[in-house]
Design goal:
Blueprint (H helix, E strand, L loop, with lengths): L2 H13 L3 E4 L4 H14 L3 E2 L9 E3 L13 E3 L4 H4 L4 E2 L2 H7 L1 H4 L7 E9 L8 E7 L2 H10 L1 E2 L1 H7 L6 E6 L9 E5 L4 E5 L4 H4 L2 H17 L2 E3 L2 E6 L5 E7 L6 H5 L11 E6 L3 E5 L5 E4 L4 E5 L9 H6 L5 E3 L2 E2 L5 E2 L31 E5 L16 E9 L9 E3 L3 H9 L2 E3 L11 E3 L12 H13 L6 E5 L18 H12 L5 E4 L2 E4 L13 H7 L4 H16 L7 H18 L1
Parallel strand pairs: 1-6, 3-19, 4-5, 4-10, 7-9, 9-11, 14-23, 23-27
Antiparallel strand pairs: 2-3, 6-7, 6-8, 10-11, 12-16, 13-14, 13-15, 16-17, 17-23, 18-22, 19-22, 20-21, 24-27, 25-26, 28-29
The structure holds oxalic acid and manganese (II) ion (MN).
Amino acid sequence: MTPAERWVEETAKVTRPDRVVWCDGSPAENDRLVEGMVKDGTLERLHPQEAPGCTLHRSQPTDVARTEHLTFIASGTQVDAGPTNNWMSPAEARNKVRPLFEGAMKGRTMFVVPYVMGPPGSPFSKVGIEITDSAYVVANMRIMTRMGRPALDQLGGSDEFVPGLHSLGDLSPDRRFIVHFPEERLIWSVGSGYGGNALLGKKCFALRIASTMAREQGWLAEHMLILELELPGGEVHYIAAAFPSACGKTNLAMLVSPFERKGYRVRTVGDDIAWLRPGEDGRLWAVNPEAGFFGVVPGTGPDTNPNAMATIRRDTIFTNVAVTPDGIPWWEGKDKSPPAALIDWQGKPWDRSGKAAHPNSRFTVAARQCPSISPRWEDSKGVPLSAIVFGGRRARVAPLVFQSRDWEHGVFVGATMGSETTAAATGQVGVVRRDPMAMLPFCGYNMADYFAHWLKMGRSLRAPPVVFHVNWFRADESGRFLWPGFGENLRVLLWMIDRVKGKGGARETPIGLVPTPDAIDFEGLGLQPAVRETLLRVDRSEWTAELPDIRAFFERFGERLPPELRRSVDVLADQLTAATA
Ligand code: OXD
Ligand code: MN
């Protein structure tokens, strides 16, 4: 018996399913599963011509987003989880969470889902096995990972896999736990079928567990999109960008260049997760460990993200969108006005008062269906990064873009990122919180050690990517966005590449290097000079007002915070004071 078979057998003794099915990831298996889910009401088939191969899943209304307050790191000691994670001792997890799995699969099928995170044949790819009693999870994992055969082939008889046990349980938030054991590299998730809680290859493995592996092994597991930017003449650059959930990573990764005719093109390598490693050439190389996109649907439309619209035209699982009576999916932002009759995300006739689609409704779709997918998206070595971008959603304070002075300053910029919360996690929306490197909900260990690891990684790179910060969301007094965003964000990326190449105008400010007024091509956007000025403004009083919050956030890490970061806040404070004087 292989270690995987042994674990499956032991698990079945606890969960007591009616049957155990090892998934091979084949189309025939998927057809059978979908058929079964259509019969039992888990899925609805959508319009055969307008949405061929597409299905709709409606989840329980209390299970529509990640539940960060029910997500735990069960490291041996609390300090290893750090002040930003919920901690549960492994003993408490055994007492409190394990019983929820006992007999949980009675009357159900236990699916065994072997999967690979990472490109086929890549030395950086890693195997996971998810045990789940949800056919919907299996269907999603088949899209999001390389599932079945490729995983069993890579695994052979070895024990090198991350086991993840998932059960829907009774779907009650009162009995919902997502627990990570970084030392054992094990995941338990019970009580939720929502993607970020239940597709264990994604946030649980490729970010939380992988971040702990990366720290030990000298690489980084990051919440980043990866895009390819081609310049006229064929020069190519790769950029990775970390934005918090539902802040536009998918849109940026699939950006349609407004300057396509001049030879500027953008292609997609990944939209959510990047595994980064130093290459022999001293550069940082990135792979996308995922095989699909689990994207936010509302706001996706022909103007905002035509590539995503083309990607999700067929063979897509929609979760919690609205639908016309004849099965055409609909969501806010799809087009200008809703169809005459709609069934809302909860399956009720839409009375036009609230949202028809849930604000965190999702599509699950294979990356290979994306028209802008890069020919190198599955490159087994990855792609070399010219730039790393951090970004938040801030109505005020952060300018459109600035450049960090060096890697150490870039780590400070990432570590102090602030962003308004979104519907991707349950809780209040629109509140500014510190979300370092967009990893606050996803770092599997003490973030002070994570910052130290970032600093150490920089020392191992001879040609590190240049680090930038962007904010597409600066608004005027009435809350209107000042920057058009979407395809026009290319203009900002082009300034970054100029800077990478030692060109492009920039002026020193206390927060870093900000474009000079003429350094970004604003031509044709119709932006008034005052708006341009506001977009690039570094307001000293606003930044000074940020300092207490940054210091308070850093204080939470106590002595463990790398001294470089403490020094960087002091430098920022001094420079703000000097500039004011
Ligand atoms: C996601 C998230 O689903 O970040 O990618 O919540
Ligand atoms: Mn994400």
